[in-house]
Amino acid sequence: MKKIEHVGIAVNDLEKANEVYRKILGVSHYKIEEVASEGVLTSFFKTADSKVELLQATHKQGPIAKFVEQRGEGIHHIAFLVTDIYKEIIRLKKEGFDIIDDSPKKGADNKLVAFVHPKSCNGVLIELCQEIKNDD
């Protein structure tokens, strides 16, 4: 694990949340991106070396819609940047963690991602992120 890559926050209304976080962070979002496979619209903010990802569901069957329905808006996950996501998945499995994604998939912000189940992380969903290079 290299560092915390971002904190993901589930929201009902991305436009309203963008305005809230623009005021809090003092900067505008730098990117809005849809990840259709996850049923989510994302918005990213960056200050210094920290990032916040806002997540709004695009359909009611997606994981963000289910999260907001069950828990309301709030912190959805913490993402860690890794050098080799494949090795991290294997390492964490050996350590006894319940890995949701046996293989990484394309996520937002030019990343390969895989998730670790919150049941094995004290109730926190962990996202592993690796920058996508041309050879990934």
TrEMBL record:
First-level EC class: isomerase
Gene3D superfamilies to which the protein is assigned, alphabetical: 2,3-Dihydroxybiphenyl 1,2-Dioxygenase, domain 1
E.C. designation(s): 5.1.99.1
Domain VOC: 3-131
Organism: Euzebyella saccharophila
The protein's name: Methylmalonyl-CoA epimerase
PANTHER family tied to this protein: METHYLMALONYL-COA EPIMERASE (PTHR43048), METHYLMALONYL-COA EPIMERASE, MITOCHONDRIAL (PTHR43048:SF3)
GO MF annotation terms: methylmalonyl-CoA epimerase activity
Pfam family, one: Glyoxalase_4
Keyword Electron transport applies: no
Keyword entries, A-Z: Isomerase, Metal-binding
Gene that encodes it: mce
Similarity remark: Belongs to the methylmalonyl-CoA epimerase family.
InterPro entries: Glyas_Bleomycin-R_OHBP_Dase, MeMalonyl-CoA_epimerase, MMCE/EMCE_epimerase, VOC_core
Key word Oxidoreductase present: no
